[in-house]
Amino acid sequence: MNNKQIRRRNVSAKPISANESPKVSHSNSKRRMSHSNRSCIFSLLFCFCGCILIAFVTGLFMCPFETVMKIEDIVNVQLKNAYAVNSLLSTGKKLHNIFPTPECTVEGKDKLLYAGLADGRVVCIHPSNDGEIGAGKVENITTGVIQGAVNTYDAWGHGRPFGLRLVGETLYVADAIYGLYMVDIKLKKISILVSPDAVVPNINFADDLDITTDGNFIYFSDATKNQLTHYHFEVYSGICSGRIFRYNLISKKLDIVITNLCFANGVQLSNNEHQLVVTETNRNRITWYDIETWKPLHVVNLPCK
Ligand SMILES: *[C@@H]1O[C@H](CO)[C@@H](O)[C@H](O)[C@H]1NC(C)=O
């Protein structure tokens, strides 16, 4: 044991008996020194914390982002009847081992399921021979890559279908990489409808779509101005850059109908097709919009994400 170590022990050791008095006095002087050391450390720590606090407060006042979230008119809904808690979604059969992160699924005729996967593919899941849904062979409808297509992020290397609708033999796909396209499910032929560069600013995150029953209009969401790899910037910044587009399949005209949505996720036409229902993930909110005036008619603030 070297001298230093012994001294350090003495600092913390309490005098045990009078016999040890010389040692005690030595220890006391050491203790005084350590007191001043300690107060020095505390001052440094205090300065350090003070600096951090000043940096935070300065940052807060210099922050370029405005707080846009202001939740008003909240009505608490009882979790009863239609809102009653249930476990319907946890009792089915899980196919997640075979399919990487499907975010959209639609049901076709003859018990066929279609899903868009994380590797960019759209697949068709057949029923088993004895008719069990989801238990049969898996057929690739698309490869996940659309050669030569404009994309939102080169390095991604394949698409990311997030929204699907099936009309007859045609699948309509909202894809965060390739925009809006349709696939003939028999011929497996893809046609781009709206590519990401169809408007300025570009469509960076096509997320979901719905189509009118006359087949003339597609409404689709562009969740955020940030690309797929940076979608969380929408959360951190508090900036709501989501948009809803209307695409006319006859005239090929594209209109922006809603802007400034807080991560525009799902879109769904109401049964009478007079309203468009839009979910905003970052705002925990579902809003019914009149499709003539685009005024919000009804809002449901959800309790959590
Ligand atoms: C579907 O595509 C995946 C990924 O490219 C491939 O591994 C698989 O073999 C294909 N399935 C069929 C039935 O061709």
From TrEMBL:
Chain segments annotated as transmembrane: 40-62
Listed GO MF terms: hydrolase activity
Protein name as annotated: Strictosidine synthase conserved region domain-containing protein
Species of the source: Ciona intestinalis
Keywords, in A-Z order: Glycoprotein, Membrane, Phosphoprotein, Transmembrane, Transmembrane helix
Pfam families (alphabetical): Str_synth
Organism classification: Eukaryota, Metazoa, Chordata, Tunicata, Ascidiacea
Annotated segments matching region Disordered: 1-31
Compositionally biased region (Basic residues): 1-11
Biased composition (Polar residues): 18-27
PANTHER family: ADIPOCYTE PLASMA MEMBRANE-ASSOCIATED PROTEIN HEMOMUCIN-RELATED, STRICTOSIDINE SYNTHASE-RELATED
Domain Strictosidine synthase conserved region: 207-290
Family: Belongs to the strictosidine synthase family.
